[in-house]
Design a protein that fits this description.
- It contains eight helices and two strands.
- It is mainly alpha-helical.
- The chain has one domain (about 25-200).
- A two-stranded antiparallel ribbon has the order 1-2.
- Strand 1 and strand 2 form a beta hairpin.
- Helix 1 (about 30-50) runs antiparallel to helix 2 (about 60-80), helix 1 (about 30-50) packs across helix 4 (about 90-105) and helix 4 (about 90-105) packs parallel to helix 6 (about 130-145).
- The longest helix has 23 residues, at about 60-80.
Length: about 210
């Protein structure tokens, strides 16, 4: 069986439920665009998680990568035109979806760094999620050859299909303090959850008689 590795952004599958907006959005059309892009972005991973093949026989990992590349010029245009689309601009769900799309732009590290800088200002304005900022901080660190701050980016090591461990980590003794400061769960709790999801993703499918 081909081992399927659960990426560190996959924890968010299905977690961005739509919320009613008390204040009209600045960019309602952009909100819908981001939601559509995120749906396309997540579809291959959802199929892989469920161990469902593509109806056209495509390699879903390759489909995922092609989607990332196709979305990149759209994301760059959004940043040029509106800056960072935060909660007040596109709503919480769509702002989270924008972050998710940037999280997957690993082939464009300079763009990820640019967005991270823009995002910091929006986090300080309470216009973006500090937890999402932590994930992107770690992603940028890994893609720049530096150590993670929060341990969000994982690999799977050990016997069998392995268990989740951070790819790298600066000052591990104080990581839970850093995580708690922005509302994140303890690192061990997170790693246990990632391991459980990884096991579920790679569970042998029942044989249909």
């Amino acid at each position: 069986m081909k081992l399927l590795a659960l990426t560190s952004a996959a924890w968010c599958l299905g977690t961005f439920a739509a919320a009613a907006q008390a204040i009209p959005l600045v960019y309602p059309k952009l909100s819908k665009t981001l939601d559509s892009l995120a749906y396309v972005d997540q579809w291959p991973m959802q199929q892989l998680f469920k161990q469902l093949p593509d109806s056209a026989g495509r390699d879903l990992v390759r489909v995922e990568q092609e989607n990332f590349a196709r979305h990149q010029p759209i994301l760059e245009r959004i940043v040029r035109q509106v800056g960072y689309p935060g909660f007040r601009q596109v709503g919480e769900q769509s702002a989270n979806n924008f972050w998710l799309l940037v999280q997957h732009a690993d082939a464009y590290p300079a763009f990820q760094r640019q967005v991270l800088q823009l995002m910091l200002t929006e986090v300080q304005r309470k216009n973006a999620s500090p937890i999402n900022y932590a994930y992107l901080t770690d992603r940028v660190a890994i893609n720049s050859g530096r150590l993670e701050e929060y341990g969000t980016q994982v690999v799977y090591q050990g016997p069998g299909i392995g268990h989740a461990v951070p790819k790298s980590l600066r000052d591990p003794e104080n990581v839970d303090k850093r995580r708690a400061a922005i509302g994140m769960e303890p690192l061990k709790t997170y790693l246990d959850r990632m391991t459980k999801m990884h096991e579920e993703m790679n569970k042998p499918k029942p044989v249909v008689p």
